[in-house]
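Minutes, project check-in
Item: structure for the 572-residue chain
Input as provided by the requester:
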Amino acid sequence: MSFEDVPTLPVRYQIVEKLGEGHMALVFKVYDHHWQRDVLLKLFKVNNQAAYRREVAVAFALKHENIIECVDTFYIDSGEACLIYEFLSQGTLSTLLVGKPLSRHLVLHLLDDVLSGLIFLHRRFFVHCDLKPDNILLKVDTQTSELRAVIADLGSATPIREARSGKQSIGSPAYTAPERLYEGFNVGSDLYSLGIIAFQLATGHLPFIGGVQEIYRAHLSQMPALNEVEDVDLRHLIAMLLEKDQQKRIHSAVDAQEMVRALLAPIQIDAVTVDCPPMSHAVDHTPKKLQHLHSWPLNYQPKYMTVCGHTPYIGIAHSDYIHFFNAKGKSVGPIMFSHGPYLAEKNGSVVFPDTNSLIRYYPDVALRKSLTIPCKHILNVAVSNHHIAMLDHHQASIYNLDGKLSANFSKQNYALEPSLCAHPEQGFLMSSGLINQDLIWYAESGETLHHWHLGWPILAIVCTENSILAACVSMDGHQLLQFWQLTTTTKREFSESVNIGDVFAANGHLIWARQRGELMVMGDDFQPYTIGELPHNSRLKAVSPSLEHVVSLSNIAQQWQCELWQLMSDGE
């Protein structure tokens, strides 16, 4: 049969119009007299029967509302194989791309639909391999009248094992993941393609244009112009989808969908305090008891750990992301991509940098808000009532909470990460000097208010009602912690021999662990108290801002164990 001719179909089907032709098949709009509706006919050319067998095996195995439904298959008299799919009258996603951005609401809903289809596909061990706007169909939700997205072209879908081998050659250059060019497809490759689609929907154009080789080079080494995505939260999502390194990219369609749905969820102002609350001064009592709450194993050593909220939530950070867990070790919310640092606040949130700006995240409601404050490679961050300060190895920056720069000045930190603390009256306290041995009090304008020379590297700083407490570490060969109580006119000091580890500042107190596991805390009276004992081989890893909870980490028989503890006063 000549493909210029109209194929002869079973009497049930009547061709309405030809929609297109590819190198493997013809596509027709067909009327189904049995069900009295339009359907889509895909007729495979004789020399592409292997492609038909591949697609028919996938098409009938996948039944999901966000994946196109295959309803019939047959051969016609001339020997060509046919597949019948549902017909979606709204066309493809390409019909929406008219050179201008779509609304944030529509972009997120379409991404949510596509991710639902990808989750189903990936859980059945398939990779789509050719995700692009032409392969995403649209339909109208009969209940909400909103557009819904449906993944099509299942002929490109490939078992994960085969896709990883690099044997799969299907793909469109504009949407091809970097690893496809030298390794092969995997589920993360579909997410990269979705990131390209998301960028296109949010800006009205593709991130990379040019010849095929130019586009491939861009996928491998060029970052898209993410500043063109006006919505900061959507920009962050797209940035994580478009990570070149698969290990830094969003790990799964499930994680990506959780982030999308968090952005779609209405902000419950009553559920969280969006503005930074006033700084609390020191409490009038010191915790007296340490109570174990829960423990769970980890399969890696975290780079950072943080604990926040009254529930509480524990953030466990690897090299490029942080994952939150509830008090029983159950995963909550999406994975948040960041290199840190992570600042837990008393309002239950955590402030951390993403690829573009500072983010405030509330684990209890999975609410993520951009502070619209640019940052890159920062080492420490602190928040006061109205300002945010950030330090890197070369400078300090102070911003108003509305994102306006208040001060920016050079500041070198040569050894150890710099310490930083908001002062309850004004400004910020920052460590400085060749080995972080100096403590400087800066106003929000960058003016120096006071300068103390403490001699050894500063590990932690906290402001109490009447003074400033600082912890330093001796570097003269003796395992000493050196503590200072400072005012603008006085300076007191004492030392103790301990197994040097992390020292934390929380709610007007310094807290640390001795070599045998005794957990120590010191407040405004400048006296250390023992409040409990951590297990053998444990290290103190995180303290909540309210000084209600601590997290420790131990390694026993090559197994990492995370422990959550509660600190209580005598009256609790």
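Outcome recorded: The CA atoms of residues 518 and 533 lie 4 Å apart.
No further action items on this chain.
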